[in-house]
Fold this sequence. Notes:
Layout: E1 5-6, E2 18-24, E3 27-32, E4 38-40, H1 62-86, E5 91-95, H2 101-108, E6 112-116, H3 120-130, E7 145-151, H4 160-170, E8 171-180, E9 190-193, E10 198-201, H5 207-210, H6 227-233
Parallel strand pairs: 5-6, 5-7, 7-8, 8-10
Antiparallel strand pairs: 1-2, 2-3, 3-4, 9-10
Helix pairs in contact: 1-2
Bound molecules: zinc ion.
Amino acid sequence: MSVSTSTIRCPVCVDSATSRWGSRGGHAIFECGACGLTFFDLSSFTAHDYRDYYRYTETWSETDIVYEVEVRRRRTVRQLRRLASMIPGRRLLDIGAGPGYFCRIALDEGWDAEGVEISARAVEIGRDRLGVSYIDLEAVPAASVDVVCCRHVVEHVADPLGLLRALRRVLKPGGVLVVHAPHREPCRTTCWASPAHRWREWQSERASTRSPWRPPASGAPIPIPSSSAITSASGPS
Ligand SMILES: [Zn+2]
């Protein structure tokens, strides 16, 4: 695998050296020499408007929407119960909530759940068909949320640290942030912990069965940012 130095900047460290790690779908993947993050150069992608992301749902029937909720229910309930064992509060925010499947199930499980979503189409479905409410992240009071779920969002934003700071702002002290993001190598669990906030990823659920990813060199360690790096990178609470 080529390790030639790249001029592409790490979205976390910004000024650290990066190198080309591999490619997928014709897009180069870069690796940060300082923090080990692997990432696409988002500027190389054609502009993608996530506000239109859920247009395919325009032809959906009621049966389709119910199916989308029910096919997720068992796994989601298991995740929510694990979260409930970690923290007594039940105020939950789902970032990139889409049509609100996760929020609907959370509401059914007794959580005070709201979604954050930029797609008007998704919000329309969630509000009108699933009874889910949405809120702008900026409108969420500081230190008011027990659990923030941010599943498969952080890898899509140009400023992941800015997003993490915004999420930290709304979390109560001791609150839980759940982040799901692709990992370049199969892994089952990653746990980041800090004294003020708990940072956890409960599992990389697809990794063991479907991930096509393999380490670039056999025996290469899987770099996982230290809790102190994550804590300091996300700024003061
Ligand atoms: Zn970095």
